[in-house]
């Protein structure tokens, strides 16, 4: 029992590290958000989005991403965000499978919001 719990903990940690390794860096995100043709897509639920979000973002819940892919094709770059980076990693993979090449995992929305606010203060 202890061995299976230990193995589960190790696997969960590796998955978590893998997701965080995929999140774009602050400099990249700061640069992307200043360019025309970039959209920030928040993949949290409508309820989560309504509780707080980045003003310039659009809400496309992960569950409906497949239905909304066509509406994102006219953007040059797509930054996907969620609460922690897990759903945005899934959304990034889904968009890449659909042929998108310039998709960035912005991680948690509050993290990106802090980056954007710091840029405004400079």
Automatic annotation (TrEMBL):
Keywords: Signal. It comes from the Bacteria. Residues 1-21 form the signal peptide. This is Rhodanese domain-containing protein. It comes from Dysgonomonas mossii DSM 22836. PANTHER family: RHODANESE-LIKE DOMAIN-CONTAINING PROTEIN 15, CHLOROPLASTIC. The lineage of its organism: Bacteria, Pseudomonadati, Bacteroidota, Bacteroidia, Bacteroidales. Residues 34-121 form the Rhodanese domain. CDD domains: RHOD (cd00158).
């Amino acid at each position: 029992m202890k061995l299976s719990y230990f193995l589960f903990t190790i696997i969960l940690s590796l998955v978590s590290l893998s997701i965080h390794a995929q999140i774009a860096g602050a400099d990249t995100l700061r640069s992307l958000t200043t360019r025309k043709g970039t959209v920030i897509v928040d993949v949290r639920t409508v309820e989560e989005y309504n509780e707080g979000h980045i003003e310039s973002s659009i809400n496309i819940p992960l569950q409906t991403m497949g239905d909304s892919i066509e509406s994102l094709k006219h953007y040059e770059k797509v930054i996907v965000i969620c609460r922690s980076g897990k759903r945005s990693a899934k959304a990034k993979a889904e968009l890449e499978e659909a042929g998108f090449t310039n998709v960035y995992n912005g991680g948690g929305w509050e993290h990106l919001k802090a980056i954007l606010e710091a840029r405004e203060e400079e």
